[in-house]
Amino acid sequence: MSSNIGKYISLQIFGESHGKAIGAVIDGLPAGVELNFDKIAEQMARRAPGKDKTATPRKEDDIPEILSGIKGSVTTGAPLCAVIYNTNTRSSDYSEFEAMPRPSHADYPASIRFDGNNDLSGSGHFSGRLTAPMTFAGAVCRQILEKHGITVGGHVYSIGGVGDTGFDPVNVDAEQLNGLNTLAFPTVDKTAEEKMREKIEAARMDGNSIGGTVEIAVVGLPAGCGDTMFGSIESRISEALFGVPAVKGIEFGAGFGFDKMLGSEANDRYVNKDGKIATVSNNNGGILGGLSNGMPVIFRAVLKPTPSISKPQETLNLTTMEAETLSIKGRHDPCVVVRGLAAIENLVCFVICDILKGNGII
Amino acid sequence: MSSNIGKYISLQIFGESHGKAIGAVIDGLPAGVELNFDKIAEQMARRAPGKDKTATPRKEDDIPEILSGIKGSVTTGAPLCAVIYNTNTRSSDYSEFEAMPRPSHADYPASIRFDGNNDLSGSGHFSGRLTAPMTFAGAVCRQILEKHGITVGGHVYSIGGVGDTGFDPVNVDAEQLNGLNTLAFPTVDKTAEEKMREKIEAARMDGNSIGGTVEIAVVGLPAGCGDTMFGSIESRISEALFGVPAVKGIEFGAGFGFDKMLGSEANDRYVNKDGKIATVSNNNGGILGGLSNGMPVIFRAVLKPTPSISKPQETLNLTTMEAETLSIKGRHDPCVVVRGLAAIENLVCFVICDILKGNGII
Amino acid sequence: MSSNIGKYISLQIFGESHGKAIGAVIDGLPAGVELNFDKIAEQMARRAPGKDKTATPRKEDDIPEILSGIKGSVTTGAPLCAVIYNTNTRSSDYSEFEAMPRPSHADYPASIRFDGNNDLSGSGHFSGRLTAPMTFAGAVCRQILEKHGITVGGHVYSIGGVGDTGFDPVNVDAEQLNGLNTLAFPTVDKTAEEKMREKIEAARMDGNSIGGTVEIAVVGLPAGCGDTMFGSIESRISEALFGVPAVKGIEFGAGFGFDKMLGSEANDRYVNKDGKIATVSNNNGGILGGLSNGMPVIFRAVLKPTPSISKPQETLNLTTMEAETLSIKGRHDPCVVVRGLAAIENLVCFVICDILKGNGII
Amino acid sequence: MSSNIGKYISLQIFGESHGKAIGAVIDGLPAGVELNFDKIAEQMARRAPGKDKTATPRKEDDIPEILSGIKGSVTTGAPLCAVIYNTNTRSSDYSEFEAMPRPSHADYPASIRFDGNNDLSGSGHFSGRLTAPMTFAGAVCRQILEKHGITVGGHVYSIGGVGDTGFDPVNVDAEQLNGLNTLAFPTVDKTAEEKMREKIEAARMDGNSIGGTVEIAVVGLPAGCGDTMFGSIESRISEALFGVPAVKGIEFGAGFGFDKMLGSEANDRYVNKDGKIATVSNNNGGILGGLSNGMPVIFRAVLKPTPSISKPQETLNLTTMEAETLSIKGRHDPCVVVRGLAAIENLVCFVICDILKGNGII
Do D291 and D225 contact (CB within 8 A), yes or no? Predict the structure, then answer.
């Protein structure tokens, strides 16, 4: 209805940031998939907080406990439920936001939506922490994709206006993606990382935050995957990604760059590449008519700066309807792009699995 | 499963461009809505082909025949089916694309997806013509929104790099949107229209096509609408919009501009505006945590240049696996942005109705 | 949402009995299925009115016009829409039921549900006529099942207390089912037909109507089909069947007879039957844990007597809140069981296809 | 997809009988509902094992731990997840069934469906134990129904052919239902309980099991609830109920008794009852055209005898394809009807809530 997604495989996310636990139930996974928990832990670690100073100092082990759906380490075909207990919470930090909603946070609309019953602590169900179970679900799906020769990876495309080199949309391959996957701060161009870190550090030192974009590629997806119209790969990836807090835009292939292109420039003409059908360019990001065309699926998403900043902001006290100054305490990421990348990448693994199931491939 | 959408109200689209008919079934509409067919016809006319030389010369009356779901002109609460018969088709134009798929069209992946059984004529189910039933469904929903004081409108934001003045994200109102709705080529700045038309005409004269972006606003949506996570307003609008052929990107509020922003710049602080809660800026495009915050919902979408161009393109003959030159005959839009705007705007009306139903408002 | 069903293939029914048309959209059918329209017409004819005096004298050709989803006679994979125009309607018959709802009809609750906007004529969307598009959709699916060696058939199990011989739940086979399928009044025991016809004729002569049950078998369904829990074969068949007007009960295998059984009598023990796994009895109707076990799937459904009877009935005038006598004119079936059988059987073909798609078989 | 259900509120069940835990996630509950945990515990206790000798001696505390979706004891509107840990399991009991599937259990079809990866221990996800989270979810929904004056209750209608007095379908009321709810073995006629207990005890002493039926009533549901066709109340209750292990049939109102009725007998004529619209009889079980008509909703469901019996059964060894004798050890219910009643009743509370949400009532 809301925190669940999937046409053929269902993913249900639950939990609040400072509640007992967060988690996910995946229903419709193929049976017989042997899960490598080390690899799942690697993906969880990529998203986990407390790693370095680009992220929140809140530390959580974030080791999901799998309650159902596996026998030993093999999926049974029954719904797989994983729970991550919240162990390191400080709810006292949030009491004042009831009267004075944090700018650009869900606080105010959520209090209207749920008649003031929503859990405000740590942003409750709206917290970025909820990307942990998404990451888990995707990390499971990633292992299914691997068996089908499909690799999902990405890099930080830009932060605070500092850009990385974009993927070569025609030649990006599994090797490059797997390499990026091992990096704490994945960029194609190593010098970009340094400049981006400087931007983040400057924001952090100033009690501020900063936004950025990520670029994701899916390679190995066979041509002809996806469904028509609202079942397009774009529809399904975007529906999922806008469930990730902070994501405010998505573009496939040339994306907003199409705005300046002529058809003759934009069209990806077909070529015979070593006996196989390929395209010389990939402005369509591997998707035509909503279906994969065999080229890498490429898209970028933008994440807004963390709205929680310690820098004082003037805002409104809803009780008095007077302006007041707010300085948000607590442990917050100066930039969520690196951690967001891990969450997004893995969530996309779920979406691709769902698409494969709809196509009878898994 | 694919050409249907909606969590609380279901919209099923059907039809192929050169088949007998295209149409839509809407299931779950409120009963007792008196439909104004002139207003529906106005919306259909906005999207219809053959209006002027920015669009395809193919002429279709595009008058939907309503087969069910109304008594007189009032909705009965039963599924509403509307059919638009295809009367002006020239299928002979498409025979050659079986061997030689048109670049950037669905031809090739669709033939893989459907084992060569898909209808290639006029692009079949992948045709932009399928936006007619989307527009119809949205035009019906638009009348429900009106009764709740909600207005959806938009303008051509850019074509070929020529930009219009963007909406004032805080002050855009129903009057402005309704005004734009009456224009054949809706722009905020009338001088932009002229320059955009020049761009389109130049492309047309050259047997080429050109891309662009649209900007849409929803005003009057009360705070607190939407569902959590994957039920976010962004998820639902984007899932729908990527079902519109040619759409390749979407951004809400400041969108990709967040990439260069600090949190202190990006955050929309709350203010007391004549005794009501408002925000001074609207970088979040009226959506926080996926829910409406009472400010205008603002987003932009990019549409790629029509892939059908008469200008010769080199591409691959899949039978011989040799390069060949292709010149696409037929009647094609040099630019789909203006017609696409009408389709997108109305489709968004459907999405907003679906959201309102989920919130118990309709 | 309501008049649509299906987990992996979607079936959307629309139309009102005395409106312009009724129809169905099927989304998610496999591409490349060559449809035999004569066979579809045969199934439609089984359900069609006006055949003999057991049914309503209203005559409708009921030839569905397929608007989309096929090229020649082969499915394209795009949504298939079929429309049946209503040509022989007499809406004046229904004007009085606004004030005086017909007993056991949907009139009264529907007027509450839809604020009096529902179409009362011919029972509108609640009419048994809506089983025509269900039958059509199922007749299409039946042809897909045939290619997988799956046969669905049934017989009138009882009418007015007169029973037919039940299926042999272990040995019922495609040959028997196909034979029954050709009969105008399918019974296993030919002498039962005569007695049932007498019951119906007696009811008809008295301006009355009569109820009965049908028994359906699905043979050839491989073991292991279905999903867990609410995705059980029983859940999915029953969800569909209760969408058929008049159906008020369903039982699988021994059904309500289990109430008198001990476990040792009820259990279907496994045997080696010519080298294959089979069960000696089939009390479970071929379904264990919601999944097929390879034995025939067997179930029975009960259909209540047509509520429309010309025999005078005392009921309530809602305007005056006084009792009044009502005699329902119009052309009504004295017994809907034979026509209902055709509708149910075919609808089950849709459900089985949906299940097969979920299992990756089609 | 399978273990989830609901059109407007989603219920996802997970877990295996001998796994770490079982549980439920409910997504779409109204916010602000104050939960009474004692009342939830009462419902859980009704279903819980180990109460008396009619049930399995396996003892489980079955106290659900709520991980999310509440703040204090009030629903937040975010997904509510509850987990019940499995503490008292003896998995060694199940090793032999891999080669020799238990008759009438899911073992064999599940091993085909999930390629032998399904968890066989305690029947895994197919266990009756999974009705615990269903009961929990329903017990939550029951409290929402209470606030709307809707009561759901039931009684054991028959066991082993011994029948209880059925509900008076017109006059059954909340008081009677609430009274039954407090009984360990709910029957309308206290003398029936004794005879039924004798039947169960006889089966138990013989290492056997026995089947029965339950009758459920929903009172206080306003007229006009439900959706059309496949969204009928019957469709939705039956879809849910067949997700309960052992349920093999369901009938609404007169159900299979309609088979012997004339229309003039079956029709429920309307009367003015103290100024309100009512019907003199209630053969339709409070549902017309799939919608509630304001009379009590009444239905019966049959539960087959527990397939697990210690009495020796001859069956097939799938490895050798030879007949063998099987005696099922372990702790099993000689009759699941009483516990099943609690599960079914509560699950129906969920379904009614889902219907109310679709009607904009909650």
Answer: yes
How many other CB atoms sit within 10 Å of the CB of residue C138?
Answer: 31
A77 CB neighbours in chain C (<8 A) are: 228
Average pLDDT over every residue of A28-32: 97
Tell how far CA C361 is from the center of its chain.
24
Counted across chains A and C, CB pairs separated by less than 8 A come out at 14
Task: Please tell me the predicted confidence (pLDDT) of residue D111.
Answer: 95
Residues of A in contact with D115 (CB under 8 A): 31-32
Q: Is the dihedral of CA D256, D257, D260, D265 positive or negative?
A: negative
C168 interfaces chain D, CB cutoff of 8 Å:
no
Q: Is the pLDDT of residue B236 over 90?
A: yes
Q: Please state, rounded to an integer, the average pLDDT across all residues of chain B.
A: 94
pLDDT in tens, A211-251: 999 999 999 999 999 999 999 999 999 999 999 999 999 99
B127 — contact with chain A (CB < 8 Å)?
no
A-contacting residues in D 63-92 (Cβ below 8 Å): 65-69, 71, 74-81, 83
CA distance A238 to chain C (A): 21
Angstrom distance (rounded) from CA B218 to CA B352? 9
Q: Which residues of chain A neighbour D22 with C-beta distances below 8 Å?
A: 68
Check CB contact of D32 with chain B, cutoff 8 Å.
Answer: no
* ipTM over the 0.90 cut-off: yes
Nearest chain D residue (CA) to C211: D259
The shortest C-alpha distance from D3 to chain B (Å) reads 19
Place of tokens 């073991």: C223
Instruction: Report pLDDT for D92.
Output: 62
Question: Are the C-beta atoms of C55 and C166 separated by less than 8 Å?
Answer: no
| Domain spans of chain A, in order of start | 4-358
pLDDT attached to residue D316: 94
Rounded Cα gap, residues B148 and D285, in angstroms: 38
Q: List the beta strands (DSSP E) in B18-125.
A: 21-27, 65-68, 70-71, 74-75, 80-85
How far apart CA A6 and CA A11 sit, in angstroms, is 6
Pick the CATH number of A4-358 from 3.90.1150.10, 1.10.10.10, 3.40.50.970, 3.60.150.10: 3.60.150.10
User: D79: nearest CA in chain B?
Assistant: B228
What residue has token string 């981006």?
Answer: A196
